[in-house]
Amino acid sequence: MTALKEYQRLESTGLWRETAQAQRREVVVSIGDATLVIADMQDRPLAHWSLAAVERANPGQSPALFHPDGDPDETLELGPDAEDMIAAIEKLRHAIERGRPHPGRLRLVMLGLSVAAVAALAVFWLPGALRDHAVKVVPPAKRADIGAALAAQLQRVTGPACADPQGRAALSRLAARLPGPDGTPPRLGVVRDGVRDALALPGGRILLRARLIEDHEDPDVVAGFIIAAQERAAISDPLDRLLQATGLRASFRLLTTGTVPDAILQRYAETLPAAAPVPVPDDRLLQAFERAGVRSTPYAYARDVTGETVLGLIEADPFAGETSPRIVLSDNDWLRLQTICGN
Length: 343
Prior knowledge:
PH-domain like, 10 strands, 7-stranded antiparallel β-sheet
């Protein structure tokens, strides 16, 4: 897109808030490859917003207030000194909106194509093809909605997420410290039970078992399980696993309505905690630990106190014999996080 190339070197400062409860923080905003990049003042990425999913909460008003589609709690405020950036975002939003097909027409076209495919294609090919297509076309905001809905269904097993305010604030800082392979911070939640250690859901959501935090003295342990969950999700997309487990109806409903019915999510949630985790090769895990600036040894010993089954992660620790290059959490934040469940 010509307009996108025109603005790729444009930067400005703004105020970003990750959640409704979080404090606003000064950030640097730039336009990347089809994304709005939000970074801290040390140029460390905090969030990537798809330009196609950026919404303005107060058209025509100043300061301009933007948020991702489907997540009004995460906001970006741009003042009068960022007029060029505001104009660029609005121009790109309008260009993208003009290029979008009419939603009703698109739905009818997709429905017609689906019916034709059912009539013309082999029964054994169709479920996989529909699933693959659904996984590719579902936007990040819809993935986040599905992940939140699935987490709500999992509460029958896990109980409600721990919600101590100071603990949640520390959890948000931990998420910002550990962006996933795509540069987006995970959406972390802590539950008492019902997950093995760390469970990745669609939309970058990860549920952590409270004992990972309460039973260890080193925040590098929980950081390691988050990194492993992120790599597991990169190898095997949680949305793809959901659709594979729930069958053709879920894929079809997702393509035609943009949602997965609660009844399907409920049945899937009942089996998810017992599902075997997808294995992640040691070399891939070690690369992820190195990128994140986190030691792999604490995570390895948390998995196996003898070290026998995780020897590769111990011997090839990218920061063996050192502290992590950047602390995972401050001591105060770690103590707050350890009481997130009200201990």
